[in-house]
Amino acid sequence: MAAIRPNLPAALAEVTEELRSGDELLTTDELRALSIFEEVKRAPPFERFPGTTVLRRCTPGRVMCSQGNAGATAYYILTTEDVLKLRERQLEQTRAMITAKTAGTEHEVRHQYLRLLDQADLRELENTLYIEINKLRTRVQQLGEADDKTGHSIRAVASANLLVDLSERRSKKGLLHRLWRWFARGTGPKVSRPQYIPNDGPADIDVKTLKAPLHEAEIFGEMSCMNRAPRSATVIAEQECYMLEMLRNVLNNLHRDPAFKKKMDDVYRSRVLETQIRRLSVFQELTDEEFALLRDRVELLDFDSGAVIFEEFDPSDCFYVIRSGLVKVVQNVGCTIRDQEFAAGQWKQLCLELNDSAGDKTGACQQVCKSLPEELLTRVADSGGASSPEDKTALVQALNDFVRNAALHMKLGKTKQQLVEVVDSTEMRAAVADFPNDPENWSEIERRTFHRLLLETACPEGMPHRAASVGPRRNLAYLGRGEFIGEMGLFLDQPRSASCIAYDHPESGYSQRIPDSRTGAVPSRVELVRIGKREFAELLGMSLDLHARIEQTISQRQKRSLLHRERTMPETAYSPTQAPNFEQLGLIQGQELMLIDLDRCTRCGACVEACVNAHDDGHTRLYLDGPRFNKYLVPLTCRKCLDPVCMIGCPVGSILRGDNGEIQIRDWCIGCSLCADQCPYGSIQMNQLDDPVELTESEKLLLEPGAEIKTVTEQAVVCDLCSSLPSRDPSCVYACPHDAALRVNANEFFQGSALAATDAAILTESDSS
């Protein structure tokens, strides 16, 4: 058998708290025997990632996690049966070691530390385990005798606590204010306080007690762990119990099991409705009774990055609220075909060309016809172009299905150049010029564009040409959490006025570690709340405040869209977000985007020197290289992305978010460079280690017998926004003598200024008229 070569042991105690008396680092066999891992088809490879789980012994009053702190781990509360099984296994191992030492023979044990104990210590451990096992057997019997309801109550071992003051704060007001309040009683909307408050746990928090029970066999903290979000409550042990704390890589491994993932997704989605959707601004206008009517009728949808949520001119059938991610609103990128695009006589020509293409035994045209319903093509051919209205509608629908779903870009060639040669179209050559070379990396809009032009090539006279009906592409907005889309079409009973696309990280121009890809990043997703047309109407009827808010938003968006179309000057002159390279550079992602004002910068290097001095390892996290945007240099350093794809998939869970949302890489990084490859902006560097990694004696005890540690020659380094300094202010900005270095929220700095400029233009035009 090949020797196991584990990675560096993860210092889980550094993520949460130091190991206390009674906390344990379990062996691989012990972990796999726990019910949570027994139920999955393939347990996490604990032998390769030692130290990623810790068994916490919880005595009454122990705080496991605190409200508001960064969440990097999840917890599983062991059942009494789990603990009993574990202790029986450990007792067997201890007795085997006692026997081996008494006889002077060798015995292979998984717990390496047992070898270090003498006979007296082993006997003491045996006695301790024996006493605990008897107590556990008694408790298991009690649980078995209890009915389901009582048993669930008995298994309550901890509580999630909301640390807020919900009492009404009364301030001293003047006589006029008190009189106004007295006369105004009953005139305003009644806002009732909910009985329960949602949190990142299996049960809601009671408003009266500010507590929620946590029971054996329950998982909590996984939403915070997966979403890299702060803890929503403080969890305190109410009685003696054991909790298994695990890093995100262990939780990710569990999610690969279909049954476990489905179970967790169901729990996740039920919690999301209360913990996050209720807090979105659009729903805060509703009373609890109004939201309760809506809650069971909304849908939670996920869209992969680059996916089309809806396209311009699609029917308006629903309204979306953005729960997470970014949505790009664009005009003039639609590719589907509309009846009104056909000129007189064009329909007959289309039928003839499709018939001719079907007979073509070679080339792309025949591939197009093979992708369309054969029965429909036969009816169209037999009609000679005099098809019934039903056949026309069916054919347009079939053509649009082809545009949306066909995969000929993967069949006709392996590269962009091969596709262009096969199609041999001037329009196609111009349209795909900026597409990635590998068609597999094309976005959904790029795929749709290719297939629409493929139809136009197959039927040059019969197919309406898209270029004749759309103007230049126009990026209208980037919308994030809590904002809504699709309201205009429903409110005005019109088709969609723009396309909405799940925003992806752009292709990196400065960290091309993965050749020929749109980005090195792992694709992320956009999560939306979908509200149907009927529910949307009911929602507006329930809340006059929401109705007014949406009406105002529509008016603003209509004016800005009109201004965009009527402007004769270049859009980039007043809106930085409209510049072509704004999207390419992914600037909208930056919550702490580093900018260097080149009009002020003297190239003195004080910012880089300050960065080096702020860290003990002598490595800079700031490189004065990068793209230019307007008068700014965008240097290579962490921008604290809204969607930090660098954090996805770390095999040892060493890349985390700090309490202020900054990215941190802990010292058990194994140097795999996955995070550096995934960062689209070259913000993570791989630095060579001067000395080889040396394990401590306690860390060696985590390894399986005969295991050999991998040699780590380099580790990842990323800007942590100087969170380790007392001031927590970026040293690079503080040290700049000319105020050229900036850290900005890109959404506010660029998009905010763009909207302000547009609003000013709207007001100016209104005044002049």
Structural overview:
This protein is of the alpha+beta class. 38% of the residues lie in helices and 14% in strands. The chain has 28 helices and 26 strands. Helix 4 packs antiparallel against helix 5 and helix 16 crosses helix 19. The longest helix has 27 residues. Among the domains are: 223 residues, Jelly Rolls, CATH 2.60.120; 135 residues, no CATH class; 170 residues, no CATH class. It starts with 11 loop residues before the first helix and ends with a helix. The protein has a 4-stranded antiparallel beta sheet. A 4-stranded antiparallel beta sheet has the order 2-9-4-7. It is globular. The C terminus is likely disordered. 37% of the residues are buried.
- In the CATH hierarchy, what is the superfamily of the domain at 12-165 and 196-264? Jelly Rolls
> Could you say which structural class the secondary elements and strand pairing correspond to?
alpha+beta
DSSP strand content: 5-15%
> Would you identify the CATH architecture of the domain at 12-165 and 196-264?
Sandwich
Question: Count the helices. How many?
Answer: 28
Brief sketch in words of this structure:
By secondary structure, the protein is an alpha+beta fold. Among the domains are: 12-165 and 196-264, Sandwich (Jelly Rolls), CATH 2.60.120.10; 335-469, no CATH class; 583-752, no CATH class.
